[in-house]
Amino acid sequence: MRKSLLVLLAALATAVLPACQKAESPGAAAAPAVAAKEHKVGVLLINHGSRQKAWRDQLLDVEAKVKDRLLSLPDVRSVRTAFNEYVDPSIAQQMKAFDDEGYDEVVVVPLFLTIGGHVNSDLPNLLGLKNDPRALETLPRKGIPVYRPRAKVILLETIDSDEFLKANILRRTQALLKDGDGKDYGVTLAAYGDDKFNQQWEALMAEIGGHLKQHLGIDTINYAWSGHLVNYSMDPTRKAVDQILAAKKKDIVISVYVAYDYKFQRDVIGEGVRHASRPQDVLYVETEAILPDESLNDWVVESVRNGLGRTGVSATG
Questions:
Q1: Phi and psi angles of residue 238, each rounded to the nearest 5 degrees, phi first
Q2: Measured between alpha carbons, how far is 211 from 214 in angstroms, rounded to an integer?
Q3: SS3 string of 78-143?
Q4: pLDDT in tens, 263-283
Q5: What is the pTM of this model?
Q6: How far apart are CA 153 and CA 139, in angstroms?
Q7: Which residues contact 83 (CB under 8 A, 6 or more apart)?
């Protein structure tokens, strides 16, 4: 019995020892390491969208001017633009393309002036950050395709989050004021407006107005909405201009729009100016908007730089 046990142990040792020696041999080849998955980050610039090519070109120009700088940031491999509505490429198309190409993170820059229905509802639901059944049902009926992305999404802040917006409005107002005495001028800020976020829009106009008063010596500033809130009517602009002209020699009208859209700057704001009591005393450049502005391009790059690595939300999480 004892002899049989010794024989068995010897046999086991003979079988195991060579394997151990082979594994511990200095010259033995190591098992191939599993390559780490590349961390691919995409950047998506989202804007409202317009049927006007000139309007779209201004937004596409932003992408062209920031692309190389963004691609130099860690792990950023692609920069794209999406239009929220009216034209392609849509948000759904671009997010699906990121998924198909294996991107695991997308940093989204909303090129919208401030908070509103699109930023508060459309974008989060289209990017997988919200799951509102009513919104997800309504969007396709409005012609906006829905795609729920797999990639982690980091949604950054809107344009009004940065000081450059006030600097932009100040520069444009100063160009019209020239060497004039600010005490003789008023300013009308013409913006889209939003019924559900009226408080935020009013606060933004007040902030911009305060900045102008501080730097230009202009003490009379008002604002007028020109979007769906007022049924795209010229009357709010006309009334605001006449209010200024009743107290001042001249009024400077500034369109607080991201890009030039003749529907607003010409047909709403422009008509309001032309129907004012003294249109000859109104200084207004119809084709002006926030774009083009190199400072906005800088803001895009810095926003993405600061957003990289920030905690995001995965639609599949």
A1: -60, -45
A2: 5
A3: EEEEEECCCCCCEHHHHHHHHHHCCCCEEEEEECCCCCCHHHHHHHHHHCCCCCCHHHHHHHHHCC
A4: 999 999 999 999 999 999 999
A5: 0.85
A6: 20
A7: 46, 47, 48, 49, 50, 56, 59, 89, 90, 91
